[in-house]
Amino acid sequence: MSEVAGPRSLQYETPAHQADAAMVGMWLFLATELLFFGGLFLTFLVCRHQHPLGFALAGRNTELVIGAVNTVLLVTSSASYGAGLLLIERGSRRGLVLALAVTAALGASFLILKGFEWRDDFRRHLFPGAGFGLSGEDAGGAQLFFAFYFIATGLHGVHMLVGLGLLGWLALRARGGAFDRGWTTPVAVVGLYWSFVDMVWLILFPLIYLLGRAG
Predict the structure, then answer these.
(1) Are 201 and 70 within 8 A, CB to CB?
(2) For the residues 79-104, what does the mean pLDDT come to?
(3) What is the pLDDT of residue 11?
(4) At what angle do helices 64-89 and 93-123 cross, to 10 degrees?
(5) Residue 122 and residue 178: Cα distance in Å, rounded?
(6) pLDDT at position 90, please?
(7) Which residues on neighbouring strands pair with residue 121, listed in sequence order?
(8) Is the dihedral of CA 51, 121, 43, 76 positive or negative?
(9) Cross-strand pairs, 183
(10) What's the pLDDT at 14?
(11) In whole angstroms, how far apart are CA 113 and each of 31, 53, 66, 77, 201?
């Protein structure tokens, strides 16, 4: 990707230097995010090892269909974003704006479905604490599962909201003519973030929806 014609901030010697700094900065940020989510996933696996029956019971009470549909939505959103990046690299600002709109619509649909899922979880009293909806000797492990479930999906949802904000920012700048085939770095940087958020979900999906049913 050529970065020779883009705008340059004063602290950078060349647009290429600015582009490299932006990409490295995003990779470093994602590395810290990976450490954070990695600790969360490790905690889940340790607790599951200690309470296998409780986690299996809880996993069977998740909404598999919504989880699967949301997975398809996010995978498709990554594809549409990648198409937008390819289009702007070929000089099509209109194509980029359209791809960003499609990506944002898919991301918003994900959050709406997740909201319906959470509403159903609360109706079934699956939030950990007094009045928890699952009973029996494995209920304690099930509560640990749903504690992870709400924390992990909540954090992922916050990252999705940030991503949607970034998509809107890119769309506004693209409509104003900020990007062309010689300057696509902001689009590439946000694409790294969006792909990371999708990757986190691709790990969450089997942990939450499949492991309990597989056992």
Answers:
(1) yes
(2) 96
(3) 55
(4) 170
(5) 44
(6) 94
(7) none
(8) positive
(9) 180
(10) 65
(11) 29, 28, 7, 15, 14
User: Which string of DSSP letters, residue by residue, matches the chain?
Assistant: ---SSS---TT-SSHHHHHHHHHHHHHHHHHHHHHHHHHHHHHHHHHHHH-HHHHHHHHTTS-HHHHHHHHHHHHHHHHHHHHHHHHHHTT-HHHHHHHHHHHHHHHHHHHHHHHHHHHHHHHTT-SSSTT-S--STTHHHHHHHHHHHHHHHHHHHHHHHHHHHHHHHHHHHHHTT--BTTB-HHHHHHHHHHHHHHHHHHHHHIIIIIHHHH-
Q: Which amino acid belongs to residue 56?
A: A
Contact 189, 30 (CB under 8 A): no
Q: Which residues are registered as beta bridge partners of 180?
A: 183
Query: Quick count: other Cβ atoms within 10 Å of Cβ 180?
Result: 16
**Euclidean distance between CA atoms 36 and 50, whole angstroms:** 22
Q: Which domains does the chain have, with CATH numbers?
A: 37-214 (1.20.120.80)
How much is the pLDDT for 111? 98
> What is the C-alpha separation between 174 and 168, in angstroms, rounded?
10
| CA gap 170, 178 in Å, rounded | 9
165 C-beta neighbours (distance < 10 Å), count? 11
* Cα angle: 57, vertex 58, 62; to 5 degrees: 120
